[in-house]
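W.,

You were right to be curious about this one. When I first looked at the sequence I had no strong expectations either way, so I just let the prediction run and decided to look at it fresh. Below is the sequence, 237 residues in total, followed by the output.
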Amino acid sequence: MPIYKYLIFDVDDTLLDFYPAFATAQRNIAEKLGIEPTKEYLETDEKCGWKAWEESGLDKTEEKDVQENYHVYYYQYLRKHFEYLLEAYGRVCDVQELVDCYLKSISSSKVMKEPDTLSIYVKLSKRYKLVLATNGIEQVQKERLSDFLPYTHRLYISEKIGFIKPTGDFYNYVMSDLKCRLDECLMIGDSITNDMVGAKAIGMDVCYYNTKGKKIPEGVLVDYEVNSIRDLVQILL
């Protein structure tokens, strides 16, 4: 196995579980609107969110336009989401107030993807320089990652650096800032497109964090595959 100096971690659904953050935001938005967060409400809200997400093209991170305007489109997506929700329930509310509530709710959620995620991260930090690389909003991600930051060498947030995964610009920025060689780095993440394909495209080794046992698409190469954060200990320590 190559001798790595840097472990580069994705954040959402690799270190932190995004769903509890989203569920908290759903409940807080419902409370602000005076709506009971029933199953029907939650399903309606998710439909509004997915409709806005698809219209904003945020899942098309391979397209140049999305890469260059991702964060503009992200804020547009949030506004559309809540506009559709207000329309669905015939409510009137300042949309920006709902956007702010959503971002604050997401920021406050620090639920780990696995119970021992942080302890293993700390253990790895004793041998490697740990790096966090995430597509997201700076004010949100920095707050959510506060428990990890004392053990982190560098933090790269797409809104802050101006590039998103899976672009070569993002990964080349990271490499330039770290002043290291590709063979010294291992990218660890749950996204085939953003983490595996993105990092592999510039020649970096990758580790697929595959907790759901998904089939790796044909033509996608990964150097390692783990089903639990604990598996990293077996590989790297």
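Here's what jumped out at me. The radius of gyration is 19 Å. And, maybe more interesting for your project: The CA atoms of residues 48 and 84 lie 6 Å apart.

Coffee later to discuss?

I.
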